[in-house]
Amino acid sequence: MAATAAAAAQDLRAESLKLYGGVYSPDCGNAAAPRVRIAADGLQISANGKNVRTPARMDSYTSFGGAPTSAVPEGYKVEFIGDDFSLYVFEDGKGMYVPLEGYVPNAAVVVGGPSMKARFGHCSGS
Questions:
Q1: From residue 101, how far is each of 3, 45, 87, 88, 115 by CA, in Å?
Q2: How many Å apart are CA 78 and CA 60, to the nearest integer?
């Protein structure tokens, strides 16, 4: 089974995980705050004991969204692509972050409406 997981994630670069992987949250110091996790074993969004997960299949620096001609928004760094959803990492003057609203609609059932609009910043050391 491990060989199958490794083969499925063959397009997931270790360098991408090193640079952009880890935990993102609107309140990194609060263990009860919603979390987004990007790791080799999958993409996960969790809050209040609920979560959605998908295997991480690949990453992309050159495309954005489903259409090859989609405009790339300012600050876009990488897209981590899973079977059920993708997570996008952006960077601005405040650092790296993962937006949910407009990008991961199925996260609303986990984090709730107000948290969908929150800034999920990168939690250092996670």
A1: 35, 13, 11, 11, 9
A2: 6
For the beta carbon of residue 49, count every other beta carbon within 10 angstroms: 7
Listing DSSP states for the chain in one string gives: -HHHHHHHTTBS-HHHHHHH-EEEES-TT-TTS-EEEEETTEEEEEETTEEEEE-EEEEESS--SSSTTPPPPTTEEEEEEESS-EEEEEEETTEEEE--TTT-GGGHHHH-HHHHTS-EEE-TT-
Long-range contacts of 14-23 (CB under 8 A, 24+ apart): 14/40, 16/59, 16/78, 16/80, 19/77, 19/78, 20/77, 20/78, 20/80, 20/89, 20/96, 22/122, 22/123, 22/126, 23/122, 23/123, 23/126
63-120, pLDDT tens digit by residue? 776 666 677 788 999 999 999 999 999 999 999 999 999 999 989 999 998 999 999 9
Kindly report the pTM of this predicted structure.
Answer: 0.86
